[in-house]
Write a structure and sequence with these properties.
The complex is a heterodimer of chains A (about 110) and B (about 110). Chain A is mainly β and about 110 residues long. Chain A has no helices and eleven strands. Chain B has strands at about 5, 10-15, 20-25, 30-40, 40-50, 55, 65-70, 75-80, 85-95, 105, 110-114. Chain B is globular and about 40 Å long. The chains are: A mainly beta (about 110), B mainly beta (about 110).
């Protein structure tokens, strides 16, 4: 099945700086890549997603880029704010998998220092 | 709309006890999922139900059973709880298992087995 690796596991940035989280995947058939934000004690919530026919997608301070050739995708957060502090998960959706189709990264704990 | 609702939010069990975690969604989704979340391991799929009347094993099904009661409800049962099942359990739903649409998560059940 698909294997998703996420780096770094922890990330600290100063308020106002940018944060970048990177995920790699193994199966070239994967074609949908959502990102989730999970605040402490809360549910994972979808913040942005990208499909394989698109190279980049932006939503205000958040952007995701996808490199299908290299099989990696990244989350970019600009002008970080303390409320961006959370754990971020990437995922890859593999349509060729008959069983589990969503594969999650292990998460990045982002701390924005005021 | 409440989205995905899980009960209970917290539970403490003794080894060997049984319990059922409840999940209901009001988004008319066809597919539902149970995950467990452990530190440093991301989300791991326990069982899923692609549609009403069907259930299948995920990555870590041992020690669990599930029931898709109807389109809205999907329960997870621990027949004889073990300390290794201490975890945070998330229920999720999506429109269809075979479509590249995001999953929507409940608030989670924090389960401790003593």
């Amino acid at each position: 099945g698909e294997n998703v690796e996420q780096h770094p596991s922890t990330l600290s940035v100063q308020e106002g700086d940018s944060a970048v989280i990177k995920c790699t995947y193994s199966d070239s058939a994967s074609n949908y890549f959502p990102w989730y934000k999970q605040e402490l004690g809360k549910r994972p919530q979808l913040i942005i997603d990208i499909r394989s026919n698109v190279g980049e997608k932006k939503d205000q301070r958040i952007a995701v880029t996808l490199n299908k050739t290299a099989k990696h995708f990244s989350l970019h957060i600009t002008e970080t704010q303390p409320e961006d502090s959370a754990v971020y998960f990437c995922a890859a959706w593999d349509p060729t998998s008959t069983g589990n189709q969503f594969y999650f990264g292990t998460g990045t704990s982002l701390t924005v220092i005021p | 709309n409440a989205g995905v609702t899980q009960t209970p939010k917290f539970q403490v069990l003794k080894t060997g006890q049984s319990m059922t975690l409840q999940c209901a969604q009001d988004m008319n989704h066809n597919s539902m999922y149970w995950y467990r979340q452990d530190p440093g391991m991301g989300l791991r799929l326990i069982y899923y139900s692609a549609s009403e009347g069907t259930t299948d094993k995920g990555e870590v099904p041992n020690g669990y059973n599930v029931s898709r009661l109807n389109k809205r409800e999907f329960s997870l049962r621990l027949e004889s709880a073990a300390p290794s099942q201490t975890s945070v359990y998330f229920c999720a739903s999506s429109q269809y298992k075979g479509s590249n649409q995001p999953q929507h998560f409940g608030d989670g059940t924090r389960l401790s087995i003593l």
